[in-house]
Amino acid sequence: MYPLKFKSIYKEKIWGGRRLEAYRDDLPPNKNIGESWDLACHDYGDSVVENGEYAGKTISQLISEHRNELLGAKIDSEQFPLSVKIITADEKLSIQVHPSEDYVKKMNFLGGRTEAWYVIDADPGAYLYLGIRNCTREEFRKALDDDTYEKCINKVEVKAGDMFYVKSGLLHCIGGGITLLEVHENFEKEFRIFDYNRGRDLDLKEALDVLDFETEDIASDYRLITYKGNNIKEYNLPANFNIEVYNVQESMHQTSDRNRFHIFTCVKGEGEIVHLKGREKIATGDSYLIPAALGRYELEGEMTLVKSYVPI
């Protein structure tokens, strides 16, 4: 097998725009694009291979035909476990929350989800909402009614290179002027809390059931590994996936893991993934799935890559 790149699935959003044109030349015309689904495998989208001999096949087809070579010997999930998106916002998204696995099992539907965000680009003063501070459930509900909710929410100014772990139950909202990478468990369920009078349905009752009113520390710690002028930030997320950030200065030798796949997303710069069958160009905004059976390969260039994978 070889590093697989998939066709982007673009999603028009009320809060979207044309910011992805900084990295892409294939956006649908005359649409406000808010999301690019770069790796998805569920009822709402099944990514199609763009490069090489498997071009035109969906990821679900490849899993059916080459499961162990693609996913790895120790990935036994019935469906592909991760989704990778680029989110780009001209305006604020809704204030929302994702339910936990325990909650969705109790309510008998799919959708428990945690996320990680890596900021690719941000306008000066751009911010996220992350978590509730100094506010009880009752006080928060009243603040929503009074339109004074901001006093109850952590407002975090961001810049390119910031990384955040968004666990289930954590209130969150991406502000305008931000482009970020989102890696999450492979479900598409959120409860909308506040939507700035856009006319979309809210899920306030369900949201209040799952909101975390205690967590205030939203920082993500990492271990720094240096290697021949390159470095890797290794995060240890309490989730069903993990993140590492590679700062490649010239080249890094790598070997795939026979037990699991991983995904590289370029968040800065450009380069190539050199493998036994050829070379794959990678630039800001591109994602590649590294099959478990790939073997040895080289990362060449000057670039920052986010590596996402499933712990085993």
UniProtKB/TrEMBL annotation:
The protein's UniProt keywords, in alphabetical order, are: Isomerase, Metal-binding, Zinc
Active site (record annotation): R192
Which molecular-function annotations from GO does this UniProt entry contain?
mannose-6-phosphate isomerase activity; zinc ion binding
Gene3D superfamilies in alphabetical order = Jelly Rolls
Q: How is the cofactor bound?
A: Binds 1 zinc ion per subunit.
Give residues annotated as binding Zn(2+): H98, E115, H172
- Which cofactors, if any, are listed as required? Zn(2+)
Start and end residues of each Phosphomannose isomerase type I catalytic domain: 5-106
Q: What is the name of the protein in this document? A: Phosphohexomutase
- Which species is listed as the source? Dethiosulfatibacter aminovorans DSM 17477
Q: What is this organism's lineage?
A: Bacteria, Bacillati, Bacillota, Tissierellia, Dethiosulfatibacter
